[in-house]
From TrEMBL:
Source species, domain of life: Eukaryota
GO cellular component, one term: cytoplasm
GO terms under biological process: superoxide anion generation
Protein name: SPD2B protein
GO molecular function: phosphatidylinositol binding; superoxide-generating NADPH oxidase activator activity
Gene coding for it: Sh3pxd2b_0
Amino acid sequence: FVFQMQMLDKFPMEGGQKDPKQRIIPFLPGKILFRRSHIRDVAVKRLIPIDEYCKALIQLPPYISQCEEVLQFFETRPDDLTPPKE
């Protein structure tokens, strides 16, 4: 959500703030409320919409898809290389 807000602030025209028809930045799938016992189910349900969001994001023109915010968003983190065993 924070990343999405950064993108909309940085690219207001591409985010459709002046004209919704001009929006090219994809919509972020909405949050889903869940109980602790449903964490995995929710993650699985969100996998496809978030995957589609990421694919749409990197297909945008280079001035957006290769901006610092996008590069940082997709940057590998230590937890990605050695994820928790839970």
